[in-house]
Design goal:
By secondary structure, the protein is α/β, with parallel strands linked by helices. Helices cover 42% and strands 26% of the residues.
Length: 199
C-alpha cells in the first residue's frame, strides 16, 4: 500500500514539475533566436489569421518583438502572411506487454501563404514566385500513463502549445528567407530561385 502511494506521489510530482517548468517558460515569453528584418518591399505586413487565433497570437508577439510593422488593412501592406489551416495528429510509437499504448508521436502542421504585392505590371509574370503556399510540421513524443490520465492529458496540451510556438518561429524564419530573396531580386533585377520546403 505504501509502495502504491509512493508511486502515485512520484507521478504527480513529475507532472507538477513539468507543468511548473512549462508555465515558467511561457511566462518568460518566447523570443525568436536572432532577429529578422523585412526588406522594404515586404514591410509593412498584413497577417490574415482566418480561424487560427492561437497561432496568430504567437506570430503577432514575434512580429512585435522583432519590431516588424503589422497593419490592419491589406491595402496598406506590401506583403501578406495568410494562415490557411492547421492539423493536429497522434500515432502510437510503442506499446506495453498488454498491448496498451505507452508512447505516442504528436504532430502539428500549419499551411500558409506568403504573398508579396506586385509593385508594377512588369512583375506580373513573376506571380508564382511572389505568391507561394507552404507548410510547417513539428512533432514531439508523448509518454502515456494510464494511471495518471489527467496529468498526461495536460502534458499533451502543453506539448501542442509548444509545437504551435515553434511553428510560429519557423514561419518567421521562412518569412525572413523570402524577404532576403526578394531583396536580392530587387538589387540584381534577376528573379531569384525560391524553394518551398517542409520542416
Amino acid at each position: 500500500m505504501v509502495f502504491i502511494i509512493d508511486q502515485l506521489a512520484r507521478k504527480h510530482l513529475r507532472a507538477f514539475i513539468f507543468l511548473t517548468l512549462a508555465l515558467s517558460l511561457y511566462a518568460c515569453g518566447f523570443q525568436l533566436r536572432g532577429s529578422i528584418n523585412l526588406s522594404s518591399n515586404m514591410s509593412p505586413i498584413y497577417l490574415e489569421q482566418n480561424s487560427l487565433f492561437d497561432l496568430a497570437r504567437e506570430l503577432n508577439s514575434l512580429l512585435a518583438a522583432n519590431k516588424i510593422n503589422v497593419v490592419d488593412n491589406v491595402q496598406q501592406s506590401k506583403s501578406q502572411l495568410i494562415l490557411l489551416s492547421e492539423q493536429k495528429g497522434r500515432r502510437v510509437l510503442s506499446v506495453d506487454g498488454s498491448g496498451q499504448a505507452k508512447e505516442y508521436l504528436l504532430s502539428y502542421q500549419v499551411n500558409f501563404i506568403i504573398k508579396i504585392n506586385q509593385a508594377d505590371a512588369s512583375e506580373i509574370k513573376n506571380t508564382e514566385e511572389q505568391t507561394m503556399e507552404d507548410s510547417i510540421s513539428v512533432a514531439r513524443t508523448w509518454l502515456f500513463d494510464s494511471e495518471a490520465v489527467l496529468a498526461v492529458t495536460n502534458e499533451a496540451e502543453l506539448l501542442y502549445v509548444e509545437m504551435r510556438r515553434e511553428a510560429a518561429r519557423l514561419i518567421l524564419l521562412k518569412l525572413n528567407a523570402r524577404s532576403q530573396s526578394s531583396a536580392a531580386v530587387n538589387n540584381t533585377g534577376t528573379p531569384a530561385q525560391t524553394e518551398s520546403t517542409d520542416k
